[in-house]
# Entry
Amino acid sequence: MFRRLHLTLLALNLSFIASIPAFARTIIVHPGGSIRAALAEASPGDRIQVLPGVYHEGSAGDLNALTISMSGIELVGMPSSTNAVVLENAGGQSYGVWVSPPDSAGAGPQSDPEHPPCGYSGATIKAFSLYGFTVRGFEVHGVHLACVDGFSITSNVADANAVYGLFPVVSRNGVMVNNEVTNTARDAAIYIGQSDNVLIKNNRAHHNLLGIELENSRNCAVIANEVYGNTFGVFIDIEPLVERNTQKATLVTLNYVHDNNRPNTSEPDNPLALLPPGIGVLLAGADTTTVSANTVTRNQFVGIGVVNFCLSFALEGLPCAELDIDPNPDANRVIGNFVQQNGTVPIAGPLDAFRSDLAWDGTGIENCWKANSFGTSVPSILPSCP
# Structure
């Protein structure tokens, strides 16, 4: 897995180099200037450097503050030690930075962010980089990428974006490193959906509904992040009725996932509303995940859980039928984690039976546990890894 990640990063770097023509320029945006104007002037391969200041792009009520539909753009904030580069909602704007092929930008194509038209058309943006920005206060997503091949989201802050903070979907060959995401009240701080070969490393996700979520993705890695103060910590899960219908081959390692006991502020129609606060790491219908060498502590419901996608629905007496996915978790390995002081707060209802450091609902095949340090488990004896 680690060798594959190194090869992915090498390929990503090469893709950036190949996408930048010899005449690429650097365009500098000064305080009081316009990032939109710089993008309108830019050509594929150009770098836009933005100096410290608070930028309100476009007009109140615009769908996006910034829309990028060309390949090879590097959007680089240049914060000083005392002043940030802030992209802030100008009023009623839904998205901060939207990056996608032209067929997937605009009011109609953006009406269903999890089903971008480019996922069906095959249109792709080649190479995008966002560095050094604070993206703040947008009504839906802070940063949204759709159908981007080769991306880097590095050293940014996403704060108080209502639904998702950082959101690549139907994308591949990316890195999300050294970001901080906070105050995302209605869903995930860092979300990777229907994507391949993405590295999520050294990020901090705190005081959100959900810290880090990988959904319907393949060959991704969640490494050395700190996830705390959220309602839920790290979810590796599968979702029906989207464009890519498998979740497999994920590495979750060296993360510190603690104290994720924030009240649940999910929308009532979101499946997350069915879950109690206090989950550290949850695999829901995921396959071939390795969860190793993580520290998972003081999450009041479950430390590390492995469950069927339909569990929460079944316990609430709700239907879970007509799926285009396999809802069972299969061939997951939970090895060498420190999982202590979880599952300490009783909850009303049948889910309380799963309250523990390590929990498994008994579904799926070839799931196993080995060399974990834990106090409680459901069941009391878990299948051992060979």
The CA atoms of residues 186 and 265 lie 6 Å apart. Helices lie at 2-19, 35-41, 118-121, 311-315.
